[in-house]
Amino acid sequence: QVQLQESGGGLVPAGGSLRLSCAASGGTFGDYDMAWFRQTPGKEREFVAVISWRIGGTSYADSLEGRFTVSGDTAKKTVNLQMNNLRPEDTAVYYCAGRPFVYFGGYSSRQSDYSYWGQGTQVTVSS
């Protein structure tokens, strides 16, 4: 059983940066794909980014236009999301999610594929 806990959310002005972290406990961290999703009230949870140590890379939502970077440390069991040039439309609750690596499964942007979820952390970008 994997437990996830996000941290690092807050209020930031437009154009600013924020770094979110997700700490995991339980499981063999390197065998999991770890993703970030975000959600605003009344909307579906939206894929942001994923990192896979087994594939050896990352994948991002096209809408981010290269402003976000996902990284992680398997020894520390952490995954981070560096968010730069933030915009008011980035305001959301950000969730960390994990799923066991799937051979030939590639990167997944579907929230239904992820078994483990954190509680979420609020990010608010002021205009």
Walk me through the structure.
This protein is mainly beta. Helices cover 0% and strands 51% of the residues. The strands form two sheets. Strands 2, 4, 5, 6, 9, 10 and 11 form a seven-stranded mixed beta sheet that branches. It is globular.
Secondary structural class: mainly beta
Helix content: under 10%
Cα-to-Cα separation, first versus last residue: 40 Å
Order of helices and strands: EEEEEEEEEEE
Describe the biggest sheet?
A: 7 strands, mixed
Task: Say what oligomer this is.
Answer: single chain
**How many beta-strand segments?**
11
- The amount of beta strand, in percent, is over 45%
Average of pLDDT = 95
Low-pLDDT segments: none
Which value, in Å, is the CA radius of gyration?
A: 14 Å
> DSSP helix count?
0
Q: What is the approximate shape?
A: globular
Key traits:
single chain; 127 residues; mainly beta; seven-stranded mixed β-sheet; four-stranded antiparallel β-sheet; 0% helix
